[in-house]
Amino acid sequence: MFELSHDHLPIYLTGLARRYGNIYQLHCGSTTMVILNSSEVIREALVKKWSDFAGRPDSYTAAKVSGGGFSISLGDYSEEWKSHRRLAHSALQRCVSGTLHCLIEEQALHLKQVLLDYNKKPMDLSQDFTVATSNIITKLAFGKSYEKSSAHLQEMHRCLNNIVSLWGSPWISALDSFPLLRKWPNPPFTRLMKEVAKRDELIRDQLDEVKQKKQSKDLTAPLLEYLQPPEGRVPKWTLTESHIHMTTVDLLIGGTETTAAFLSWTIAFLLHRPEVQTKLHKELRSVLKGQYPHYSDRHRLPYLCAVINEVLRLRPVAPLAVPHKAIRDSRIAGYLIPKNTIVIPNLFGAHHDPDVWHDPHSFRPERFLEGDRSCLRALIPFGGGARLCLGESVAKMEMFLFTGYLLRDFQFLPANPEEPLPDLRGVASVVLKAKPYRVIACPRA
């Protein structure tokens, strides 16, 4: 248990892979875990043999956080779960093909104005990135967006951030492997339960407000509309209030902090490599002729896509994904994996595998433009198979458009010569975040 309390667990587990190989086993109390550390073995488990490893561990803490297993991200594999995910995925896809692009453009332009208002003052932009990405989800889910100063928005973000950071604590994770500890006082777990209760209260209030608008024929939240069955049609499975509530939680947590963390990492790496930023801006200007990028332009902007891929490779925002569970006896890389074994895909380790990536710790976007680009297959920041990240299509569009808009309009410069460049190790919990840093957003002429 204490070995797993390292301050940067993905780096520690990756180090073990260099000593013991890309698949190894750990014992933690009553829990047996198999860690997968290469894209090859991760794909074998999650894609090729997805039906064997689509389960989620029977987790005491996950059940508490997910309202009893109604979450798509944490719920165990079942017919009910498959129907829930299918409906939620369909609703998201309809949003993507309808309103999402306009919502991202709107938030990207608003973010531009926020940065212009700073007037070249050194600032920590992480909160601004969080507000921009959060507003896309709240607009889809609740039909409303918020200003950075909104007390409701600040309370929601504080609550969700605390849940993510607390749940990643080893003192809480230990409750899954050592049931006896549940009888002892555990202040971090007590705090976690208070934050979960607050989260549920905030989201319940928002969903109730949306329903009242629906009754008054003023529907502004497409996601909630798409989650409901068409009028006159009797579905095989109907989503309960708990399902819809936890779908909203999944999207708020998965669609806010992850994309905001990606943007912070992107600026951090560009501060370390200013020549990459120059080359990226040159591509945007020459290809788009002064226009803003559209998502359909991604095939015309290979360097921008390469930069995005390289940031996702070096700092996958969910470095250990979410644990899987073997739902039957199976094999990975020839090794027997008994039923109920917990399987952890170490995406961070797979993205730093020296057998796949030349100079794996260096920020080098050009690697995605060289040769046959076979390295794209080894890039798996969203997982794979039945448990592929629900919001993958949303995240990809956000990352492309936000990065394109920001780098078209601004040159990002270090805060001042006395301050060190951003730390690139980061802080690892459920989400891998950059440590706070300040940057100057200098408007392009």
TrEMBL record:
Detail which positions bind heme.
C389
Q: What is its EC number?
A: 1.14.14.16
Bilayer topology reads: Peripheral membrane protein
PROSITE patterns reported for this sequence? CYTOCHROME_P450
Q: Which UniProt keywords apply?
A: Endoplasmic reticulum, Heme, Iron, Lipid-binding, Membrane, Metal-binding, Microsome, Monooxygenase, Oxidoreductase, Steroid-binding, Steroidogenesis
State the top-level EC class.
Answer: oxidoreductase
InterPro entries, A to Z:
Cyt_P450, Cyt_P450_CS, Cyt_P450_E_grp-I, Cyt_P450_sf
Q: Which cofactor does it need?
A: heme; heme b
For this record, the Gene Ontology CC terms, alphabetical, are: endoplasmic reticulum membrane
This protein's record includes keyword Transferase: no
Membership in a protein family = Belongs to the cytochrome P450 family.
Q: What is this protein called?
A: Steroid 21-hydroxylase
**Species, as recorded:** Bagarius yarrelli
